[in-house]
Amino acid sequence: MLHADPLLQRPALVHPRVLARALDHLMPAASSRAEVWQMLTERYTVDLDAVAALLPSEEPEPRWLAARD
User: Fold this and answer.
1) Contact 13, 45 (CB under 8 A)
2) CB 22: neighbour CB atoms within 10 A?
3) Which DSSP symbol is given to 12?
4) What pTM does this model have?
5) Which of 15, 35, 40, 51 could potentially form a cystine with 30 if both were Cys, beta carbons 3.0 to 4.6 Å apart?
């Protein structure tokens, strides 16, 4: 990720609905999840935890063994 320029004004995406709309716009243009993160952080000021909550997880869900009775 590039170093952020503190003098460059970027729009802040604080509402989850607006953030989700920006992600929907950027995802088709990106070839990977990392590129989505990069494009988003280069263009906007965002809460990274909110972005992580909206992006789908790349890791498969774990399969748990059945509990013993």
Assistant:
1) yes
2) 20
3) E
4) 0.64
5) 35
